[in-house]
Amino acid sequence: MKTTRYLLTLCLTAFLCLSFSANAADIELAEAVNKAGKQRMLSQRIAKAYFFLGGNVRRDKAKQQLQSSIIELKKNHTELKAEVKSKDVQQLLVFLDIVIDDYEKLVNQPYTRADATMVLDMSETILELSQDVVVKIEALSNRKTPKIVNLSGRQRMLSQRIAKYYIAHQLGFKEQDYVNQLTTAVREFESAMAVLKSEKINTPEITEKLIRTTRLWRVIRPFFMDVEKGGLPVTIFATTDRIMEFMNTITGMYVNVSA
């Protein structure tokens, strides 16, 4: 009888340890997805700030945002290299080492049309690589939570991407491809919001934040759908930043749901 009790206790302890270990691993992956996802947003935010500086709109705020975003981008990159041991992810991060250094040097130069074109291109390169990092980290977990963290976190990026292409258009980057990128980002943002609002794991706090984000979005959406009309760049700067902040908070809430 004692032997049976001992074995049962041992099995239960082992089960609890494995469950705790698996849960802790999923929490760490959700946090890594959140951090890697934020790199997508920062790639766009840096470019957006560069264009607002070039357009002499909110110069002090744009300059501060540019520098703080570069610092955060590099900090997150260093942490991801230390925290995520996947060989596939590490290979991408090594490549990002070079691209991030070049990006930092470029955006710290005075605004010119030629450099601005390169900023658009490099922001897309970092976004693409960062997206691949997110997908590869997400694939390490079988649970749904990291996927929701990815989707929510991507909204941060889209808010800044939309603002980037909007202000670039005002500065003369009116090629159809850029307009298409803007309209696609608007469509993807709205589609993801619909998915997030229907999520079963939403807490009342998450739902409330999503409602507030939607209200802000409705205020500025018409400007993006009629980009040729332009106007109110200060409103676009402030409101897309506010949306980004809301989505950043919501993404953190989704990470906590996995705890």
TrEMBL record:
The protein's name in its UniProt record: NarX-like N-terminal domain-containing protein
Membrane disposition: Multi-pass membrane protein
InterPro entries per the UniProt record, alphabetical: NarX-like_N (IPR029095)
Every NarX-like N-terminal domain range: 30-86, 143-224
Signal sequence, renumbered to the chain: 1-24
Predominant cellular place of this UniProt entry's protein: membrane
Keyword field: Membrane, Signal, Transmembrane, Transmembrane helix
GO CC entries: membrane
Domain of life: Bacteria
Cellular compartments annotated: Membrane
